[in-house]
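Worked Example 4.2. Consider the chain below.
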Amino acid sequence: MQIDILSLFPGMFEGPLHESMIGNAIENNVINVDVTDFRDYTTDKHNHVDDYPYGGGAGMLLQPQPIFDALAAVQAKHPAKGRVVLLDPAGVQFNQHVAEDFAKEDHLTFICGHYEGYDERIRSLVTDEVSLGDYVLTGGELGAMVMIDATVRLIPGVLGNAESAPGDSFSSGLLEYPQYTRPADFRGMPVPEILLSGDHGKIADWRLEQALKRTYERRPDLLKGLKLSGKARQMLADIQADEAGY
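Applying the procedure from the previous section yields the following structure tokens:
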């Protein structure tokens, strides 16, 4: 996968994109990441990339020209346009399903905003407008890092264990079940006996029940509209009855 990032602060990506999983993916040629400073493409003699909004108002807006020209230069190197993602608080909220969708692409370009916002004409360049959540950051760089991390780990060959990503929280629509490692008893806190039983069927049922219980207690909103098997529906009904004291 080719990942391009348009940003006024390319130095912000130097650490996160060369460490841990993403760094390994780059080193193993699973992905390639290029960061472009779109200030390099401004035609303004003072190197400005922003200006006051027409009609008045607080703050400064990013001008279209530097971003249009920077994106054109990126796409000239990679003719397969792919998805162009605008980081924007007004966009669709990023989640695991969006990450899974992005992971299917061969080319992703992230446009990181700054200042008060974008000239509206910049939106004509993009295929997706995505927000990290219902809050405002200083710029789109941190949001892009999060989205890239969540996306890249889903690409085949990036994680060491092919089963790791499908078992993550949200991949199934549920929060992840509790997990344990050695020792079997740590300071009086033992691992549940069923996990030591070797009975894979019972372990799978326990994990499903625990995932349902954790989701019901912490994120009940995730259960709305979620398609559950008959077994899972019965487990959830039992959990709800226990919580209600029936």
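Residues 200-218 form the longest helix (19 residues). The mean pLDDT is 93. Compare this with Example 4.1 before moving on.
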